[in-house]
Amino acid sequence: MCAFRPNELRISIIGAGKIGEALARRLLENGYEELVATCRSEERERELRASGIPVIRDNRYAVERSDVVVISVKPFQVAGVLKEVRDLVDYDKLLISVAAGVTSEFVERVLGREARVIRAMPNINAVVGESVTALARGAHAREEDMEIAKEIFGTVGHCVEVEERLLDAITAYSGSGPAYALVFIEAMVQAGLKTGIPRDLSLLLAAYTLSGTARLLLETKKHPAELRDLVTTPGGVTIEAIHVREKSGFRAMLMDAVYEALKKSLQIRELLAESAE
After folding, report:
1. Closest by CA position to 135, among listed 90, 181, 177, 104
2. How confident is the model at residue 7 (pLDDT cuts 50, 70, 90)?
3. Reading across the β-sheet that carries 116-121, which strands appear in turn?
4. Start-end of CATH 3.40.50.720 domains in the chain
5. What pLDDT does 5 receive?
């Protein structure tokens, strides 16, 4: 386990958007008192302060007083933020980037020096503490740095450590994954309406069916096909629905969608690399 206790870590979250706000809120709830978030507008500052999150609009002050700096801005804003604070970032600070396509090598290139960098790819489920966050070490990150990152992102859900080369695919897969699941739920609701089920009830049934199935899969540790067979009886209702779905090419369509998202993620990375030149 990490040697730090929550109240010993001074954390700044640069960019209090949806993910940054969720992370700040969960960290505070888990005893991380030495925390400050930053935002750009007065309106957003008032909104966050009203909800109990300590927030300022001075990135330099936030970085200077921190042991851990979480960069939670849009990918094309990262270089600007790093250039703004790079004279304050020494090897004593741990940098964690949650921006898609921003490699640890990119961070070091913009800073102009070696740095302790961890990349993180959470998803929007962090808002309810159910994110799955992939964490990858940069070349100069230490074992202790990964433990700190796991503790921080463990407050918003589950963490897995991966090689950095996988993060573009993970961005397209689980980073964007909630959107895929929500489109599926929306389609289920429409199917419910077509069969005469009221809208509110359709939504409730679809959401709990999906969340319950995910829990069944995780707790039984069985293959999805094995669990599917439990509800697919010969000549029954379920096999008819599966037959129609297979004819539509559902699996191939989902695979294609994720692969196209990966291509977009790689394009963003390439554009970012050019911007750092």
Report:
1. 104
2. low
3. 55-56, 35-38, 11-14, 68-71, 94-97, 116-121, 131-137, 157-161
4. 6-164
5. 61
Q: Tell me the average pLDDT of the chain.
A: 94
Residue 174: which region, alpha, beta or left (left: phi > 0; alpha: psi -120 to 50)? alpha
Cβ neighbours, 10 Å, residue 258: 15
Say what the pTM is.
0.92
> Which CATH number fits the domain 6-164, given the four candidates 3.40.50.720, 2.40.170.20, 3.30.1330.40, 3.40.50.2030?
3.40.50.720
Can you give the pLDDT at residue 63?
Answer: 97
Largest CA distance in the chain: 69
20 and 70 in contact (C-beta within 8 Å)? Answer: yes
Report residue 140 as tokens: 């100069």
Contacts of 114 (CB under 8 A, 6+ apart): 91, 108, 139, 140
For residue 197, how far is the Cα from the chain centroid? 34
Q: Which fold has domain 177-266?
A: ProC C-terminal domain-like fold (1.10.3730)
Residues of the chain with CATH 1.10.3730.10: 177-266
Start-to-end CA span in the chain (Å): 39
Pair of tokens at residue 60: 């330099």
Q: Which two tokens stand for residue 54?
A: 């300590």
